[in-house]
Amino acid sequence: MSSYKHKDEGFTGLEAAIVLIAFVVVAAVFSYVVLGAGFFTTQKAQQTVYSAVGQSSSTLEVIGNVYGTGSGTGSSTDTVEFINFSVGLAPGGTPVDFSKVVMVFSNSTVSETLINGTSTTVPFEPVSNGWGIPNYHNSPAGNSLLLQPNEQFDISCDVGGIPANSQFTIEVRPAVGAAFSIVKTIPAGVSAVNVLE
Asked: Can you say whether residue 51 is alpha, beta or left, with left for phi > 0 and alpha for psi between -120 and 50 degrees?
């Protein structure tokens, strides 16, 4: 049996310091990478939350009553031809470009997208089976289609005749923010101007 003798000497202080420094540097780089990834993830999560809140909250609200107008005489056979309402920005809402707003009318028999014509300024009247902005209030930007804070647009929708005692929905879909629905019922006796409940 042969024995091998090794002449092993312990680490010197300098070698131990080099190994220790190498471990510290590797740990520091690793922790920097982990913290950087954590900060990046937190920032992305924050952006996602703010974006989701902006998309899920409606930036528009109906101001006042919703009216139905037509040539009604109080009879149950008369119909409502136009739905009229005013909209403004919700508190904290961002401006809304009405050239990109889509409105959808639906009732028990039909669902259709109302068109807004080709106007680039307000006011404009609704076309057949469409919507318009016949009037506006408190406009800081003149007659543009951009709804600003404290401004109101009067919306008129040509719905082609809704009979008495029927329910309808007008969904307003801005390009940014959540859509909101106006659900109303035509009264039993249709007058020339009707406040819809």
From this structure: alpha
